[in-house]
Structure formats: structure tokens, C-alpha cells
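Practice problem: predict the structure.
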Amino acid sequence: MTKTRNSKQNSSVEVLVTGDLCPDKCGYANGTGRMLNESMEDIFGRLAGTMKNADVVVANLEAPLVAKGKPIIKCGPNLKADPKFAQAMKRCGYDVANLANNHIRDFGPEGVVSTVRELEKVSIPYFGVGRTAEEASKPLFMTRKGLKIGFLAFAENEFGVVDEYGWGAASMDPAFNGEAVQAASKQCDVLLVFLHGSSEYFPHPSPGMIKRYRYYARCGASAVIVSHAHIPQGWEIYQKIPIFYCLGNFMFPWPTPPNARRKCWTQGLAVRLFLSKTKPVKFEVIPLQSQYDKVSVDILPPARRKAFEKHLQSLCKTLQQPKKLQRLWHDRYVDRGSNLIKRIRNLPEGYRSHADLMQWAILENMFRCETHHEIVMKYLHLLRNRNISKPKKA
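Answer:
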């Protein structure tokens, strides 16, 4: 795809960032085939022009590109996409891929290696993964119109992160990450930090997550972009740094999402970031509508945009109301915490089957995943102090 970029050196650099991208859902939807053969306008609608005009388009690729392989034992589905999707990304104008997420290792280190090789074949640089923790946490740098841009990404400590068995995503470790952010910020004009972690299908980031993500801004990020919730969670300007708590899905076809997901699964955000050497990052938020049963996305039509934008404004307002946010999360801690505890009441002794291993994986994830750990610990704290109230219906 030929991009119609503005070549003036004194103009700002435009970076387009979209939400979760999983084109094939293990063969359910032929996203790769559509993006290889159909026009951008047929796939991306009115967003196609924005993608063509951007200086950099960033993909949050939430599936390894692997033809075959053995799925790992973990919580949740094991996702993968056709290796040819790298060619489709190139054809549609993606310039860089963020790979730090909880699904990139769903088919083991081999799946990560396969993804990296396919991206390298089509000359799409990537960031957020590596064969060691140090390698995965290295920044990617690129220059547009004389502006040096840095990219860093970290994911919650679920089953996608790198470990002693090989390739995986850079893990979220604020102390270690903070040093990486500080060092990278000194090597570029603008540093974009991508984080993968939040509570799924809930429209507000947790108090713990807000605290952690603001920390990355203080360490030197020019903007912080979060994903994983599959639902927009609002944004704020924190010490002149924009933090987008979750963009929701971009293109994530799924056969008949459960009712809990149906309302939020197909509405997400794209963000246009306008970067320069001397000014804080400016941005434009673009509401999007996708379809869960096929691969297509478009800018939300005017008839539905007004109500959605009102909802987004409400989310942003809540971020500045700590007491209200705490009340909302009190109910969330009780609801999700009690459900998580119920799932581990009858743990097996050792393991005799695949089902036993899955039960142990659930317990492991409660300890290693920051969001689940926060929820369980807060629930137990509330329970011990007899501060449990019945969650209100949404």
C-alpha cells in the first residue's frame, strides 16, 4: 500500500494506534484472506484513509502467526492466526507490530519465533518480545520526518511472558520496567509505552492499575496506551501525558460472543497521536464499530456516535473521581473475587489428567496476573473485615 504522507519536516508525525487485532480466531474467520485480496475500503471503511495518511500505523497483534503447533496449558482460549497474515498486514499499511500480550505464547515459544520470522520476511519491525527478559524489554526506535520515536511494551504476568523455556512477551515489572522506560526516553524524542493488562469487560481500570500506569508516565513515557479489556476504559491527561486505559477491540471476530461480551465486543477506539520534539503529545480519539462474525471495521456512524461519545466522556470523568471509582471497584472485587475463589475450592491433589492441569493453571494465574491478584487480595481483605456488600446489577 502506498501511503500519502506529509513530507514537511516541520510538521508533526502522526502515529495511528488501534486496539486488539486477532484476524482468524483459530480458523473461525478468514481475516487473512480478506486482507490479502480485498480493498482497504471494503475492510476498514472510512478508517482506510486515516491509515493511508498516517506516518506510522501500530498493530497490537494478539495472536501468534503459526500454522501448526501444540497449544500450551493455560487459562482462556489458545489463539493463533495464519502465518500469511504478516503479508496482509504489510499490504494494509501496518508499519510496526506490538507483540507483548497474553496470547502471543499460546502455542509456546515456537509460536513466538514463527511470528517474528513471518514479520521479518515482510520487513515489519516488532517490539515487546524476545528470547530473554532483557531482550524482550528492549525498545524499538524508528525515525519519521527527523523525529526519533521509541516503542516499548510490557504485558501482565500471565502465560504469554518470557521465562526460562524461551521466547515470550516482556513482563510487567514496574521496578525493572521503570529503568527501561527512563533509559529509552533518553535515546529518542518521543517514547510510546504500550501495556497489556486490565480487567476484561469492565469499563473502568482498577485503582491498582491506574497507580501502576501513571508510574510509567512519570518514568518518561510521552504517552501510555493500554489494551486487554476488550472494552474502552476512557483516558486522562496525567502530568501532561495522555494515558489511554484501554482501546477495546479493533478486529477480533468471534463466533457468537457470550452475552457479557456482546455489548462491548464490537465497539473500540483508534487513536491518532500527533508527535513533535517540543510539545506534549496531542491526540484524536476515533470511535469504531466492528462485526464479531466477520472481518471488517469502520468509523462509528453519526447516528450511533453521539451516544457512544457521551459514554466515553462519562468514563473519563470517573477516572477523576477516586471515591466513585472505589465504590465501583468494591462491587467488582466482591463479584469477581468470589467467583475466582469458587473456582479453586476443589483443587485436585497433584494431577492425573489435562483437566487437573487446567485447574492448577487457574490457581497459578491468580498469583501471577496483576489484575487477578489485586481482585483476589482485595476481596479477601473485604471479607476478613466483614465489608462485603452484594454487588449491584449493572
